[in-house]
Design brief:
The structure is a single chain. Helix 2 packs parallel to helix 3. With 300 residues, the chain is α+β, with helices and mostly antiparallel strands. The strands form three sheets. Strands 1, 2, 3, 4, 5, 6, 7 and 8 form an eight-stranded mixed beta sheet that branches. It has a four-stranded antiparallel beta sheet with strand order 12-13-10-14, covered by helices on one side. The chain contains ten helices and 14 strands.
Length: 300
């Protein structure tokens, strides 16, 4: 059952909470397509120190309540990836219990920063603790991937080189702090539509890469990103020109080192020399475009 909670519920003492950290694709290469239609990816992924919030409490049935600034968009969807994840987990381990799940939706919907996938991953972690399944994570198998290509990396929520259809994950260590500015110009994009647009223009596939286990300096990271880029940015900007405008505004920041689009859009990101510099540009953009979602973060 999906319902919208009008008031933020007080957390019971036996509730379990997780943060669904925002995912940022620093680059995204499309390297091929399998016979089943799934695209092969190659991406360097980091996670912000900000995200949605998931809390679960014991209940006889599964219920989901949604609050937060982007709750309305999810309520209109009907079924939700969080409920799908919960049902799959019940079926996988023959769980007869339910749960009251509360989602505080802080991240914009369909915005390329893994909101739904991160929510599903956080819900899986929280429900496994609630249902005493923490020793069975290795038995999840393809359950996370069946929910979406980004769910496996969101289960880890740490810097990864992601490849395959999202199931191949290799940790990458950043040896320096990474300060980011995230900007969504009030646009939601369908990933499937962006891929269809790319296919229609018969865009070539990129080559897969071998990334180092450690990225020691910001210059090394910039070299990797400069040779990578985002293969979906052209089609996303064509579908929603506001993305191009958002990227230009991010780049206009005096201390912006690099800017790109995350995932299939519509959120742009910028790398800044300091959190204060990112916050300063966030203030400038928010002043001129108060309806946009703008957030300065640090990579976890």
């Amino acid at each position: 059952m999906l319902r919208k909670s009008k008031l933020k519920l007080k957390m019971a003492s036996n509730s379990i909470s997780r943060i669904a950290w925002a995912k940022i694709n620093l680059d995204l290469l499309i390297t091929g397509r399998r016979d089943d239609g799934y695209h092969l990816l190659d991406s360097l992924v980091v996670f912000a120190d900000y995200g949605d919030e998931i809390s679960v409490r014991p209940s006889r049935k599964l219920n989901l309540s949604i609050t937060g600034p982007f709750a309305d968009m999810l309520v209109r969807e009907g079924d939700n990836i969080v409920l799908r994840a919960a049902r799959l987990l019940q079926d996988k381990f023959d769980i007869k219990q339910g749960a009251n799940i509360e989602l505080v939706k802080n991240l914009p919907v369909s915005s390329g920063i893994g909101g739904g996938s991160a929510d599903a991953a956080a819900a899986i972690h929280a429900l496994m603790e609630l249902w005493n399944l923490t020793d069975k994570e290795a038995e999840l198998g393809e359950l996370p991937l069946s929910l979406g290509a980004d769910v496996p990396v969101c289960m880890a929520s740490e810097t990864m080189h992601m490849s395959g259809v999202g199931e191949r994950l290799r940790p990458v260590s950043l040896k320096f702090p990474l300060y980011l500015l995230l900007v969504n110009p009030g646009v939601s994009l369908s990933t499937a539509e962006i891929f269809r647009s790319r296919a229609a223009r018969k865009a070539e596939y990129s080559c897969s890469r071998n990334l180092p286990d450690e990225i020691v300096t910001i210059d090394q990271l910039l070299d990797i990103l400069g040779r990578g880029g985002n293969d979906l940015e052209y089609d996303a900007c064509a579908a929603a020109p506001k993305i191009k405008k958002a990227l230009a505004l991010i780049r206009s920041g005096k201390s912006c080192i690099y800017a790109g689009m995350s995932g299939s859009g519509a959120t742009g990101y910028g790398i800044f020399s300091s959190l204060e510099a990112a916050q300063a540009q966030a203030t400038t953009i928010t002043h001129d475009f108060p309806d946009w979602w703008v957030r300065s973060v640090r990579a976890r």
